[in-house]
Amino acid sequence: MAEDLLSRRDLDFLLNEWLNVAKLTERPRYADHGAETFASILDVSEQVARRHFATHFKTGDAREPSFDGTTVTIIPEVGEALEAFAATGLVSAAFDEEQGGIQLPHVIHRACFMWFQAANIATASFPMLTMANAGLLLAHASEEQVATYVPPMLEGRWSGTMCLSEPEVGSSLADVATRAELQDDGTYRIVGSKMWISGGEHEVTENIVHLVLARVVGDAPGVKGLSLFIVPKHLPQVDGTLGERNDVSLSGLNHKMGYRGIPNTLLAFGDGTHPVDGAPGARGFLIGGRGAGLTYMFHMMNEARIGVGSGAVALGYRGYLTALDYARERRQGRPTAGKDPAAPPVPIIEHADVRRMLLASKSYVEGGLALALYCASLVDEQETAPNEDERIRASRLLDLLTPIVKAWTSQWCLKANDHAIQVLGGAGYTRDHDVEQLYRDNRLNPIHEGTDGIQSIDLLGRKVRLYDGESMRLLADEIRSTVRRAEGTLWADRAAALAIAWERIEEVTVQVWSQRDPELALANSWRYLEAFGHTVLAWLWLDVALATGAQDEPYHRGKRAAAAYFLDHELPHVHPALDVVARLDRTMLDLDPTTL
pTM value? Predict the structure, then answer.
């Protein structure tokens, strides 16, 4: 098949030659799988993504969901695509066999799902949210709740959402105002509004399972008083059939610049539109203990952060491949040294500046793909590594890298979409080509699941100091191991530059916290995140380059060219960013808001 969504060659190399996923089949959980299984599932994923998702990529954007006051209407192709996705078994594939899954390694499942994100990120968001919702319930809900809600979601009959933000709250979850009132039967009545809820109302699936953050009346203010509730659109009966409509109603649709094929909603819980048993409030069912809601929700949020980062990679990758194909075909201009105006124009890929944008984009999207798959492999390690120390190590690394995989990819793979528009020139700004929509879709990802600023505070304010800095030490071990393997090779000088950059990361991290002033330490956390992310990507690129060995196919030469570009052109940006962080620059703190 044509390489216009993702590169299967790249996936195969990263999975098999770099990450060596075959070793996972030696573990009991994955013993029924093999290289043939993995390849077959990747094949099916690509085929279904092309046949059922890519085909309405532009239609779903042009004919976004509409609301007539009663019903949300979505183009029929979305429902058909979700049925095809469910038929593949991918909704449940990574789950336990007892849940109807096939215990597919997370890293393979992540690679499979990226085909759907590249083909149509809006439609792919339905199952992404549903799978994360089911995963949270399996981890934290009661046996009865799991039995009621998880099977129909993993069968693709029901869908799931996450309901955190509110119209006046945004990302400040400590200020959540949605309230829950305990009833005599042990259930709760939920009253409040939730904003920006993707897939919050539609008729595509039989039921929608909302996971809602709310505060039980009388519980503590702030995040410690938040609890998590299951609030279904339709209340399930004991026999599994659907009962009456719960008091959850759609107040309106938000019209975003991207992801336009999935309804983005403002939901009202308990406004009396669909009263249950004549009592006010939507019926909700508490998950776990009171006050632990945000802890539970982070299970879904962290999975969603990796999913958002992977989606950003997929959109950037598709944009890069589109621009690459265009640059090879589009003829315009002549070489700088060309003197004959009668000579035929050359493909624009012959121009140095076009090559610059393509090579930069290649380094971002292929590096981002390596990062996403590496993080997915850490999920497998934390669940199935042979001993506890290895499982803890993987968990610590994943904690540290989660804000990176979300924020770095959202920034730099979006840059690849920006480059794609530029490579296409005037055509890039038109709806006749895909790249403008890919940019619009990807521009949402720096917002999804926490802004870049929030990710940077999470990284510098929490993750680098978590477990007494153990995560940082473990990552340092990985980076230094790769640097040592590069000694005596053609990559030795670049490896030395990487080592210096990482040492500065360590020094600056200690320096900013030595002042014991959190506000000052975090004032430039966004710069720290940028430097940290680039250093991590430089490490991964060096590791990937070493994995190519002496192989001299165009693919491997391309990998080494992208690695060299990133280490030579991108890694040096780390130092000016760290200079700002290290001097504890007060520009943002001292700025008078009235001057803006």
Answer: 0.97
